[in-house]
Design brief:
Number of strands: 0
Distance between the termini: 23 Å
Helix content: 55-70%
Oligomer: single chain
Number of helices: 6
Radius of gyration: 17 Å
Strand content: under 5%
Structural class: mainly alpha
Order of helices and strands: HHHHHH
Number of domains: 1
């Protein structure tokens, strides 16, 4: 089971924040010390380097609510179709696994 897409999750989140307008409600829901300009100032120098992106993610996630919830919820608004497809696939796999377990 894989998350949808072929891009690392850190890069997906980074790209989402990069194109999110500074007027978006996401930025206004954040603490005052974190906004689009702060995000831009903290941009990683090399977004193709896995270690750089992991460090960026770990440094930034403190601003996105517990478990990144604020960012994930905002991202879901724009990606409902992809998420629904993934959820259905996951549920189907769980049902198949459960049926194998039940037969044992």
């Amino acid at each position: 089971m894989f998350l949808p897409g072929s891009i690392r999750s850190e890069n997906v989140l980074y790209n989402f924040l990069e194109i999110l307008p500074k007027e978006d409600d996401f930025w206004s829901s954040q603490p005052r010390e974190y906004n689009k300009q702060v995000f831009l100032n903290d941009k990683p120098t090399n977004t193709t380097d896995r270690k750089v992106m992991k460090k960026w993610f770990n440094d930034e996630k403190q601003h996105w609510g517990k478990g990144g919830r604020k960012l994930f919820n905002r991202g879901k608004q724009d990606n409902r179709e992809i998420i629904d497809k993934f959820d259905l696939s996951l549920k189907n796999k769980i049902v198949k696994i459960q049926s194998v377990i039940d037969r044992q």
